[in-house]
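Trying the structure run again after the queue cleared.
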Amino acid sequence: MDNVSIPDGTLPFCNNSVDPHAHMPGNSSDLNCTLPSDFHFYAGLYVILPIIYSVICAVGLTGNTAVIYVILKAPKMKTVTNMFILNLAIADDLFTLVLPISIAEHLLNYWPFGEVLCKVILSIDHYNIFSSIYFLTVMSVDRYLVVWATVRSKRMPYRTYRAAKIISLCVWILVILIVMPFTVFAGVFNSNDDRKSCVLSFPIPENLWFKTSRIYTLILGFAIPVSTICILYTMMLYKLRNMKLNSNAKALDKAKKKVTIMVFIVLAVCLFCWTPFHLSTIVALTTDLTTTPLVIGISYFITSLSYANSCLNPFLYAFLDDSFRKAFKKMLECRPA
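Done. Tokens:
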């Protein structure tokens, strides 16, 4: 969600924030900062952003819907890993589905959709921050357990499709609880010029609440899950290295290796897209940036990069997972009656 105010000369970031996800109105003056002289930059931004968001929306909806369809329809695709991929695709699809509303708000330069939809949209916007990394954390835990069981030549009777469903449900409940504070504070704010904006309206002292929300997001949405993932993959690589030295240990079979590599690459792409977003939080908390065209341009680039993650995963599955590619091709076949 972005509050770009080109027509009447207002700026999207007025609290030295480089995070378009964080909507803190502050006071009325915060929403009516003076537009710098470089009007062409903001006019270009006003046109380019909807195009970028529209491409992300179209590609994301098409790709993630295809992933959901294939996993639900193809019997061979019902595996533990694919259950987590299914939920990841649902989360991405949900976000791209509401992206047109963000585009409409950007073009109209005000929020016309009411209080309830504001809470829904801002909540989904924040689901996007937490859901991807949490499902990837669960997938990393699953990969570690698979490697651990293979090294020790043990079976995993508890690793079932039904168990994956239950775990996925638990992840959704956890994410909903984490996002709940943002849902509570989301609302429609009226500025001095009576323009409505969908923002996070924090109580006094607003600046303290704003910083707390940024730290909250940084810790729960990045620091804890990424640290967990790094530890798991470090231990996984250590076990795989020792497995090569131990002639009695069974090597991972080809299929397991491919799945492990796919999960690792999906994770790497997610970190590539989201790390700048969370680094911007550190910058916002530790520095006092002046609102300049360069800062705003970088801010929207970081936001677009995080949004783009929602449409990249289906292409990774298509390139890295033979079973997904074959199942998708089979679904597209026109069979005679």
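The CA atoms of residues 66 and 154 lie 35 Å apart. Worth checking whether this holds up in the mutant runs.
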